[in-house]
Amino acid sequence: MTRFKHLFGKHLFGKRLSAIVLLAAFGLVANPAWAQTATTTFQVQITIQSSCTIDDPAPTDVDFGSQPSSATNVDAIGQLNVNCTPGTDYVIALDDGQNSGGGGVGARAMANGADLVTYQLYSDAGRTTIWGETLGTDTVAGTGTGAVQAYPVYGRVPSASAPAASYLDVVTATISF
C-alpha cells in the first residue's frame, strides 16, 4: 500500500485525473470524422377543402329610399360579397322573399301588413335578367379567387302606387359550391 501511494501519490494522481478529464472533454467537443451516412425521405402534406362564404363582409341592402306614390321604375342597388377557395365553382341563388305568396321570384313584394309593393331583383345593370333560385336557369355562377368578389344586386320597383307606409321584404341568398 505504501508503495502504491509512493507510485501514485496524491499529487501525481490528481494531475492524472485532471488530464483524463481534460482529454475526455476535448473528445466530446471535437467533431469525429463520420465515415458513413444514411438518408430517408418523408412527406409534408395538407388537404385543402373548398369553402365559400356569402356573408363576410355583410351584404348591402337594396334600399329604394323614400319615394312619392307616383314614382315608377324606381331603381336601387345592393351587393353580395362572396369569398371562395381559389378554383372553386359556385352558384348564387336568391329566393322569392317572405311576401311572394308562393308565386316564386316573379311575385316578389315588400309588405306593410296586407299592403304590398311589388319589386324585382336582377343580376344585370340593364335589369333584364331576373335573379332567382333555379340552378342553371336564373342564378349567378362564378369561380373563387380566394379574395372577396362583389356581386351587385339590381332592384326595381315598377310602381310605388301604394298607401303611404314603410314596406319591407327579406330575401335569402344561398351559395352552392
TrEMBL record:
InterPro entries, alphabetized: Spore_coat_component, Spore_coat_U/FanG
Domain annotation Spore coat protein U/FanG: ranges: 38-174
PANTHER family assigned: EXPORTED PROTEIN (PTHR37089:SF4), PROTEIN U-RELATED (PTHR37089)
Protein name: Spore coat U domain-containing protein
Protein's organism: Marilutibacter maris
